Amino acid sequence: MTDPFDTDDIAPEPAAAEADCPRCLKPAALCICDTVVPIENRIGLLILQHPQEQAKELGTARLAALHLTNAVFKIGLSWPSLAAALGRPADPKRWAVLYLGSMRPEDFPPGRELVVLDRKGAPLPEQEGALEEIEGVVVLDGTWSQAKTLWWRNAWMLKGRRIALRPQRPSLYGKLRREPRREALSTLESAAFLLSRLEERPEIEAALLASFARMLDRYRATQPARPSRPTGPRPDRRRPQQRRGRGR
């Protein structure tokens, strides 16, 4: 089976030598690998991570791959084909890429959280049939601009389907990470959302989100407590000559 953490196509990560956990590359205080139970997924998952996204303490790409037996995680900017990225033969026409692009919430058909798009970015008329043909999904890990770079540098993605999400709930990140759009999810949340609906197995999403929540709880526990703001009137920090009512 292909190593889900094969990164031979780029230089080794500088942070890996200092990481406490060799699997998730997170500090020991944030590692939850010992609680992860792998799930057998029928729909394949390929996570392509932009190189500049590697050193994120709150990143979820590796955790998502650890959770799924049929998952491959790669770091880089471009691959000549889907098969090259996966490390095995694959038909790109049977795969879909999660890429929102310029899709806005109001562009989604009423009541749909998951939409298959054509090459022009318009929803396909026969959604259920298009979803049933999908054998695997590609998730791009990085910021919005980094995901756009991965999309345009891998022309083979245009041969497959394109999927967009409009989740009804915000990310579990909450205030820990700012997102440019409300519907933005972490890589783990996106993968969990996709696979649970494509396979009609809500337990996939439940398991991955539970692990994500545990990681976030540990992260919050490691952060120093912020001093509380004073509740009384704010002190006057203006210079003496700027204060009103001063004597002459």
UniProtKB/TrEMBL annotation:
Record-annotated DTW domain positions: 17-224
Keywords attached to this entry: S-adenosyl-L-methionine, Transferase, tRNA processing
GO biological process per UniProt: tRNA processing
Protein name per Swiss-Prot or TrEMBL: tRNA-uridine aminocarboxypropyltransferase
GO terms assigned for molecular function: tRNA-uridine aminocarboxypropyltransferase activity
Source organism (scientific name): Inquilinus limosus
Upper taxonomic lineage: Bacteria, Pseudomonadati, Pseudomonadota, Alphaproteobacteria, Rhodospirillales
Region (Disordered) location: 219-248
InterPro entries: DTW, DTWD2/TAPT
Family: Belongs to the TDD superfamily. DTWD2 family.
Superkingdom of the organism of origin: Bacteria
EC number: 2.5.1.25
One Pfam family hit: DTW
